[in-house]
Specification:
The structure holds two protein chains of two kinds. Chain A is of the alpha/beta class. Chain A contains eight helices and nine strands. In chain B, a hairpin with a 2-residue loop joins strand 2 and strand 3. The chains are: A alpha/beta, B alpha/beta.
Chain lengths: 209, 770
């Protein structure tokens, strides 16, 4: 507990510029060199340049571990959910299918589920994770709650997510605009909305639209 | 004899670009580095701090440099993967000579013999045709020491007036406008002034992709309540959440900013007191912009009138602000006017020279700032001195130990040098840190010019598409193989530190230049033993100039994490924010904040001119060009780094669905884009993030994927920057090009000469009976 201590991970897709610096840096992490554990995607490139980075949210009660028939996925005392343990993992893919955030990756070359472990080799000795170190737009941030409140007065960290009937609380926080006034992120309803990012183009070209 | 020794595809197979990936000690976990070297990224003008991990003379990775204040550990993907340019299979480790009989088109030769050959060709050409028949092209990714040396080498050693550099494609419009308006060419403020600006206006800067670290400054300004206005024909990632988005029709920036100034004047959103006390020329500008009514501005710029009005009000009524621009408004045949029109709305607001009141151009190249200060420009001497000013010539002649009349007169810009090569006036060329075959517009012409050279030599670390035309290639050094200073986007002079030694016969660039001088028997002034010695001469050469480095030392840079010039004395801390009362200003000497004898800034009338090539019935669509985040400039380095190529492997042409529909083009379709100069066939990316009358192609690729086959060589009459951002094209749906194949594995023709020095090469060559 002491080493990660009061440091927290904050994810702010509003700030993401899709540069993939996090993806590049993730593959430099010593626990999984050469393999990036970050998912970074356009929501819908045709109609918006919005991109969203996804790291492991490190659930308080991790679905991936709950569905693992081999008990291969462990959560540390300081709340970090680890990559499957090699001697136990049977590469069944249950975790990949069950994770509501779509985080675990099945590395077929190693017959092993691998995922973001918040750079445990770094964070457990007081260093920032790679992705949060390099992210040039602050979309991925690692620091104390006091720091984030000072730096991001317009947003608030939320760590409760609703997936249909399932409520999940996570160690990683999602920054949500303060004026949205939400207590949790309702993922399914968000999926039904199309991004509107590029509507500004025609609206700003033509006066009559 | 500067023609390709082999077909392009044979050369590409032998010399790359091949993709370097993580392997060996770069992939193994738990490798303890021998040392960690704090330095900076080799790419853009942000010059992020980075720590390089070195093992056995190889950079094996990086650690974030949290303690460097500009980026605090942040990096873009190019910075993260930059280390993969070292230990590369394409790396030149010997000198090469053009050899059509060799399988790879070039054969290795001993370094000393190559230097001797270069010197004898220089001697031959200059004694036959005169000193100006030999030219030099240089670059702004060189350290300031090297840039200084290149200017001195051309003038003192070669005695030629023909030297220019690739900053001509980059910073010169901003530079010329800054000099006209402020008397000094440097971003006026530290980037921290963005953080609490009420309004941040970003014009023609794809900030998130081309200067990613600046994004955090802009986002932080928003967190602090600031509003963001973005002027761009595309919704780039920085524009996505802009409070006001102004999708200007390419080439109409002057109209937009004149229109905004007209609204500021009409609504009295101007600072009368500041204009009165600190500027001249306002009345003429006010009179000129009166014609730019909102209606006319909207018609010309292709922006909704309501958006123009909203932007003018937001800008006009702010208490603090920061305006930044980049190549988007600078790459035009009226790039200087574009910049001047933005400066006018800054001066009219009075918001400059104070905390959170800023202006700056976002520098492109790593030393885009420092590389344009000390004499590798055709009309410039060190310290931003003017080569046509007798007093300046006399001072520099004193530093160089020559007579003032021995310093050549001003030469011409780099594109004009290509024209002089084409016309037969320049017969020989030495080129470093420049890839004009990819980066200059209308590159069919560039090829034609290069092929006319009697002798062409290139110093480079990879065989770039331009170096493939060389008679002799001299193996130069990578960024991490040398030390020296650069000036980043804020005008902060920082130190590049050496992490590894150059491999084989590869040699630090400044040594290569000095070796040529020595072989010419003209060593006087070219006997430096280290970059520090060059820097110490540069400090004296810049003393008393506008870009005064005299008070900057390597030690002070380290102690302060950089020193912003001007810094006239050793006890001076440097000048982070220009135009403040009492800040160092050798020109005004207390008369006022700006760098003119009267201390006043100049309003300059920016007359609107349309782009050189307007659309018409035959070519009805506007083409604009730019960059992607994972590639850098002509791609000599970044097209060789596997993970960066994976991220955006091929250029695509961005088309709005409305336009795509007209031609029956769907997302992913092969599409031919044709201008009066060339044709390119690429896959379409159909997106609503671009104006419906404009298409976009990134320019990092060579050959049939080169956007510069299409672009126009029209240039700004003052800055000589080419008009990369506007030309007329037509589109059609097309078929996959026949030669659409990628090479990734090094070819056997070259693999025998990729490692080791001349000895290995000679041995292998003998074994193969070459």
């Amino acid at each position: 507990m002491a080493r990660i201590g009061n440091m927290e991970f904050f994810l702010d897709p509003n700030r993401c510029i899709g540069c993939q610096s996090c993806v590049a840096a993730c593959s430099e992490c010593d626990t999984h060199r050469g393999h990036s554990m970050i998912h970074l995607q356009y929501v819908e490139r045709t109609i918006s340049v919005q991109t969203v980075p996804v790291v492991c949210m490190h659930c308080d009660s991790p679905t991936c571990a709950e569905v693992c028939p081999a008990d291969a996925i462990k959560r540390t005392d300081d709340g970090v959910v680890q990559t499957a343990r090699k001697p136990r993992c049977i590469a069944c893919n249950n975790c990949v299918l069950a994770c509501p955030f779509g985080v675990p990756k099945m590395q077929t070359e190693f017959s092993l589920m691998m995922k973001c472990d918040m750079c445990y080799d770094r964070s457990s000795v007081g260093l920032k994770p790679m992705c949060t170190s390099v992210c040039p737009s602050g979309a991925l941030y690692y620091g104390t709650r006091e720091e984030i409140e000072h730096l991001r007065p317009r947003s608030e960290p939320i760590n409760t997510f609703q997936f249909g009937e399932q409520t999940i609380t996570t160690k990683v926080n999602m920054m949500v605009p303060r004026d949205a006034g939400v207590q949790h992120v309702d993922v399914l309803s968000a999926m039904e909305e199309s991004p509107v990012g590029n509507a500004a183009m025609l609206d700003s070209v033509f006066d009559d639209m | 004899m500067a023609t390709l020794p082999k077909e392009q595809d044979v050369l590409a197979k032998a010399w790359g670009p091949h993709l370097n990936r993580m392997e060996g000690p770069r992939l193994d976990t738990g490798v303890e580095p021998d040392k960690i070297v704090p330095t900076h990224c080799c790419f853009c003008g942000q010059q992020c701090g980075i720590n390089l991990k070195v093992k056995d003379n190889l950079v094996i990775g990086f650690e974030p440099r949290y303690d460097f204040p500009f980026n605090k550990g942040m990096l873009c993907p190019k910075g993260v993967k930059r280390y993969l340019q070292g230990g590369h299979p394409d790396r030149l480790t010997t000198a090469l000579q053009r050899d059509p009989d060799a399988a790879a088109g070039f054969s290795p030769m001993a370094y000393d013999a190559a230097i001797a050959r270069v010197a004898s060709e220089i001697e031959r050409i200059q004694s036959t045709y005169g000193p100006n028949a030999f030219g030099v092209l240089s670059g702004a990714s060189l350290t300031t020491e090297k840039a200084y040396l290149m200017g001195k080498f051309a003038r003192v050693c070669l005695k030629t007036k023909y030297i220019d550099y690739n900053g001509r494609l980059c910073m010169v419009s901003a530079g010329a406008a800054n000099k006209k308006a402020f008397g000094i060419d440097r971003a006026a403020n530290p980037w921290d002034d963005i953080l609490k600006a009420e309004v941040v206006l970003i014009a023609g800067s794809n900030t998130a992709e081309c200067s990613p670290i600046t994004t955090n400054y802009v986002w932080q300004a928003r967190e602090n309540g600031g509003k963001v206005i973005v002027v761009d024909p595309r919704i780039t990632p920085i524009a996505r959440t802009a409070d006001i988005f102004l999708p200007v029709k390419p080439g109409r920036d002057v109209a937009l900013f004149n229109g905004i100034l007209q609204l500021m004047i009409e609504n009295d959103w101007i600072d009368h007191d500041f204009i009165e006390k600190n500027t001249t020329g306002f009345e003429a500008v006010a009179e000129h912009v009166a014609q730019w009514t909102p209606r006319r501005t909207a018609e010309v710029t292709g922006i909704a009138e309501k958006s123009i009005r909203a932007a003018a009000e937001l800008w006009g009524t702010a208490k603090t602000s920061f305006l930044m621009h980049a190549r988007g408004i600078e790459h035009h045949s009226h790039g200087v006017e574009n910049c001047l029109s933005t400066i006018n709305i800054v001066l009219a607001s009075g918001r400059i020279g104070k905390p959170y009141c800023g202006y700056g151009t976002v520098v492109g190249q790593g030393n885009g700032q420092g590389g344009r200060e000390h004499g590798q420009k055709c009309d410039q001497l060190p310290g931003w001195r003017d080569i046509s000013n007798p007093a300046h010539r006399e001072y520099i002649a004193g530093v160089w130990g020559v007579k003032p009349e021995e310093i050549p007169e001003a030469g011409v810009d780099c594109y004009e040098m290509m024209r002089k090569i084409d016309a037969g006036e320049i017969k020989g060329l030495l080129l470093i840190c420049f890839n004009p075959k990819v980066s200059l517009p209308d590159n069919a012409f560039v090829t034609r010019a290069l092929e006319k050279l009697e002798f062409f030599t290139v110093i480079d670390f990879f065989l770039s598409e331009t170096a493939q035309y060389a008679d002799i290639v001299l193996p130069g050094s990578l960024h991490e193989e040398d030390e020296g200073v650069v000036a980043q986007v804020e005008g902060r002079v920082i130190k590049i530190n050496k992490a590894v030694d150059p491999p084989g016969d590869a040699t630090q660039d400044w040594r290569v230049i000095q070796d040529i001088a020595k072989a010419l028997g003209r060593s006087h002034g070219f006997t430096f033993e280290s970059p520090r010695e060059i820097f110490d001469e540069l400090r004296v050469a810049s003393k008393g100039g506008v870009a005064d480095y005299y008070g900057i030392t390597y030690e002070k840079i380290e102690a302060q994490n950089g020193v912003c010039w001007p810094c006239p004395t050793e006890d001076h801390p440097g000048t982070p924010r220009l135009f403040e009362p009492g800040s160092s200003n050798p020109i005004a000497n207390g008369a006022g904040p700006f760098y003119f004898p009267d201390g006043n800034a100049r309003f300059v009338v920016p007359a609107y001119r349309p782009p050189a090539e307007e659309v018409d019935e035959s070519y009805p669509v506007i083409l604009t060009t730019g960059r992607v985040v994972s590639q850098f400039l002509s791609g000599t380095q970044t097209r060789r780094i596997g993970p960066l190529v994976d991220q955006y492997p091929e250029p695509r042409v961005e088309i709005h669905p409305r336009l795509a529909q007209k031609y029956g083009i769907a997302d992913g379709d092969w599409t031919t884009v044709e201008s009066r100069r060339g044709t390119i066939t690429l896959r379409a990316q159909v997106v609503t993030s671009i104006r419906p009358d404009t298409v976009f192609i990134p320019y990092h690729w060579p050959g049939r994927k080169s956007a510069n086959q299409l672009t126009i060589a029209a240039q700004d009459p003052v800055s000589k920057i080419p008009e990369y951002k506007v030309c007329a094209v037509r589109l059609r749906k097309s078929e996959k090009p026949a030669d659409d194949a990628e090479t990734t594995a090094p070819d056997a023709a070259r693999s025998d000469i990729t490692r080791g020095g001349t000895d290995d090469v000679a041995r292998t060559a003998v074994q193969q009976g070459r």
